[in-house]
Specification:
The chain is α/β, with parallel strands linked by helices and 429 residues long. It contains 13 helices and eleven strands. The chain has a domain of 84 residues. The strands form two sheets. Strands 1, 2, 3, 4, 10 and 11 form a six-stranded mixed beta sheet that branches. Strands 7-6-8-5-9 form a five-stranded mixed beta sheet. Helix 2 links the parallel strand 1 and strand 2. The protein is rod-shaped, with a radius of gyration of 40 Å.
């Protein structure tokens, strides 16, 4: 272990090494807390509207150097399950309103609602469009894990439709469309966006009709997360007037959900992409309606709240993403660190002076101890012993003068003068 003399001698080096260690630790922390280079996004079935949206997110984030791996799923419920499972690696995904609660999913937060997910009920036109027409019929309500299936089962249970529907099946949207056109099923319930390839195909096929939901307000009274939409007559094909009349539809909103531990910078990047993708006007939405600061099932993340209130972070508006993120981390770490180290640097000269003076004062203390010994023993002290102590003290003072700055030479000169006075008291004896 270092002695006191060694510590006093080398303390400036220790101070510099300590400060360097602090800055090294801060640098390691900064690089350890930078955003990940790759994230996994749960979308929906390949070829579906949500998977196509995922491709757009992937392309936009790639421009900032972040790779998005798309994970095709059966739908919103599987997306939700993946997000809940920390071992799945999924950090972001689309979830459907009405499928969870904050209590059920405490580790999931929302970046806001981003689109409507209309509930499309296509049926073969020969069976009619009233509820009783479904008696004994074959109806596809979507595969396990899809939002369509969860919503359909809830409707069937509440309104006791299970007593009239003949057979329920769980085909994916593309398969359900094929079966419906071929006549293998009589109706299909699908939850997807207007521009989904499945919707665009079924709405134009002769012999396939789209049901208008009667008493839609009654459904919304039971399920407040639903919204009433109207698909205008002829919006798909003005020439052939498809659909032939206005169609009243029900639609939950889709949210862009993330795990609560997803890096804040990645959340801002996703929100910026969401503005590019979802803010244009559409069949069911006005320009700028999405993304929206709505927390339907899970709360908005702090980063989302900050984004909707103030927009993108200042640095991300003026610097490339990774440079902006690095500068942000530097500011977060080094501003508090500078506030902590500034008083230390201000005190360093005083500490240095104190250490230098203390090395001299130790010799003064020993000098006073020798004088006290002489005074306590009167004329009975041993001259040779006192001389040896003074000589040893003088040698130490000489060695100290070699290591001390010249600014402290006057203090050493005073010490030597004091030692000469003590020696003069020994001369008469």
């Amino acid at each position: 272990m270092l002695g006191r003399d060694q510590f006093q001698r080398y303390w400036p080096f220790f101070s510099i090494a300590g400060v360097a260690a602090i800055f090294l630790a801060a640098g390691i922390y900064i690089f350890a807390t930078l955003p990940p280079r790759t994230i996994v996004m749960a979308t929906g079935a390949e070829g579906g509207a949500n998977h196509e949206l995922g491709i757009r997110y992937r392309d936009i984030l790639a421009q900032s150097g972040v790779k998005v791996q798309l994970l095709p799923t059966t739908g919103g419920l599987e997306n939700l399950a993946r997000l809940r499972d920390s071992r799945s690696g999924v950090g972001v995904g689309f979830i459907q309103a009405g499928t969870t609660t904050q209590k059920e999913s405490p580790d999931i937060e929302s970046l806001g609602t981003v689109f409507f997910e209309p509930l499309w009920f296509f049926y073969r036109s020969e069976i009619g469009d009233n509820i009783q027409a479904l008696r004994g019929r074959r109806v596809s309500i979507g595969p396990e894990g899809s939002g369509a299936r969860a919503l359909a089962l809830e409707f069937i249970k509440r309104f006791k439709l299970d007593t009239i529907i003949g057979e329920l099946s769980g085909y994916a949207p593309q398969a359900a469309a094929e079966k419906l056109i071929a006549g293998d099923i009589d109706a299909a319930l699908i939850v997807t966006a207007w521009d989904s390839p499945v919707v665009q195909r079924l709405i134009s096929v002769q012999g396939i009709a789209l049901a208008s939901i009667p008493r839609a307000d009654a459904y919304i009274a039971h399920y407040p997360f639903l919204n009433k939409l109207v698909l205008p007559a002829g919006v798909s094909d003005l020439l052939n007037n498809r659909p032939p009349t206005d169609v009243v539809m029900l639609a939950p909103k889709g949210s862009l959900a993330v795990r609560a531990d997803l890096h804040p910078a990645i959340q801002h990047l996703l929100l910026s992409a969401a503005v590019q993708i979802h803010s244009p006007p559409g069949i069911f939405q006005k320009a700028g309606q999405f993304p929206a600061a709505e927390s339907i099932d899970v709360p908005l993340s702090e980063e989302a709240q900050r984004f909707y209130k103030s927009g993108r972070p200042f640095l991300q508006n003026h610097l490339p993403f990774w440079l902006a993120t690095l500068v942000e981390r530097l500011l977060v770490v080094f501003i508090p660190l500078a506030a902590l180290l500034y008083p230390m640097f201000k005190l360093l000269p005083q500490m240095y002076d104190w250490f230098m003076q203390s090395r001299i004062m130790r010799l003064y203390d020993e000098m006073r101890s020798i004088e006290s010994e002489m005074e306590s023993e009167g004329q009975g002290y041993d001259v040779d012993t006192i001389n040896e102590k003074l000589e040893a003290l003088s040698n130490r003072a000489n060695r100290l003068s070699l290591s001390l700055p010249t600014a402290y030479a006057s203090s050493l000169y005073t010490l030597r003068s004091h030692m000469n006075l003590v020696r003069s008291r020994l001369n008469p004896r």
